[in-house]
Amino acid sequence: MSLQLEQDSPAATPRREGARASSFSPRVELSAERLRAPFSLRCGALLIDYILVVGVLAFATMLARVFGDARRGSAFVLTAGYIAVGVVAFLNFVVVAGLSGRTLGKWLAGLRVVRKDGERLGYARSLVRHVLGYALTALTLGLGFLLAAFNSRGRALHDLLAGTVVVRSRAPRT
Q1: Alpha-carbon dihedral sign for residues 22, 27, 31, 35
Q2: What is the tens place of the pLDDT at every residue in 140-172?
Q3: How far apart are CA 21 and CA 61, in angstroms?
Q4: Does a structural domain hold residue 150?
Q5: How far is CA 155 from CA 59, 84, 144, in A?
Q6: Is residue 70 part of a domain?
Q7: Considering its fold, how many domains does the chain have in total?
Q8: For 62-83, what is each residue's pLDDT tens digit?
């Protein structure tokens, strides 16, 4: 079983207008098992992403406590903090992930999210994966994440819903 992560060479296939070339080069077929992201790296990447989001919330809470003497002032700062958390989460999990296939945590862990066929993730799949998939995983009390540990292809509930797979950005050294 192999996972093709490369597009054919430009001479072999016509280029689609507006399509971006894969960031991998040159065309190489690598086994899915070799590129599959280990569960521990996925957990680390998710932890980094949530530290970012919770850090923004903690900073906003701290500002509300320090600068909000009156109830209205602290409520306004805290509300602005909640909005900032939503914006940061949306940018990290949907916009950046849809553009590059990585969140900040996945970038630091050396991981990338791609479609099952190896193509770029895209905004729609990123939205389904991170909003709908993570919400369903939260409803299952996190059991959706554990699917990745026991699934032979390393796909969690949100990956199954969006038709994605998390792989290493480059093959591990042997």
Answers
A1: negative
A2: 998 989 988 888 888 999 999 999 999 998 766
A3: 43
A4: yes
A5: 34, 30, 9
A6: yes
A7: 1
A8: 988 887 666 666 788 888 899 9
